[in-house]
Amino acid sequence: EMKDRVMQKMDGKLFRSGHGVAGEILSIAVDAILVSGPEVHENNVVLSDTTVIMKGGEKASLTDLQLGARIVVLGRPSEDGSIQADLIRFLGNGESRSDGPLRKLFR
């Protein structure tokens, strides 16, 4: 199950060296998205066929990513400063940035 896979990763190396961002999708390419970050920073997020995408508690796909969508990304930093996405979760259903998206990640 996806939750077990992510939690297993979080218990090991990925959690200790993890990297992430919460923000709005600014642009979408075939294998990457640009996400707004804190203090007006933009973050390049690299997607792969192993990137898990969750929307409303259900598994979603890359085609569900839309401009303006608010998301949380967990992954690994790359040497070029981009984030290799392991998990993307849509923020929605009345949640706001102040609701603590990481706390609600595994709702």
What can you tell me about this protein's structure?
The chain is mainly beta. The protein has helices at 2-11, 13-16, and strands at residues 19-28, 32-36, 42-46, 52-55, 58-60, 70-77, 83-90. A 5-stranded mixed beta barrel has the order 1-2-3-7-6. The longest helix is centred in the N-terminal third of the chain and has 10 residues, at 2-11. It is globular, with a radius of gyration of 13 Å. Residues 1-17 and 93-107 have low confidence and may be disordered.
Number of helical elements: 2
* Alpha-beta content class: mainly beta
**Whole-number mean pLDDT:** 76
Write down the overall geometry: globular
Helical fraction: 10-25%
Strand order of the largest sheet: 1-2-3-7-6
Topology summary:
Blueprint: H1 2-11, H2 13-16, E1 19-28, E2 32-36, E3 42-46, E4 52-55, E5 58-60, E6 70-77, E7 83-90
Parallel strand pairs: 3-7, 4-7
Antiparallel strand pairs: 1-2, 1-6, 2-3, 4-5, 6-7
Summary tags:
107 residues, globular, disordered C terminus
Task: State the gist of this model.
The chain has helices at residues 2-11, 13-16; strands spanning 19-28, 32-36, 42-46, 52-55, 58-60, 70-77, 83-90. It is mainly beta. Strands 1-2-3-7-6 form a 5-stranded mixed β-barrel.
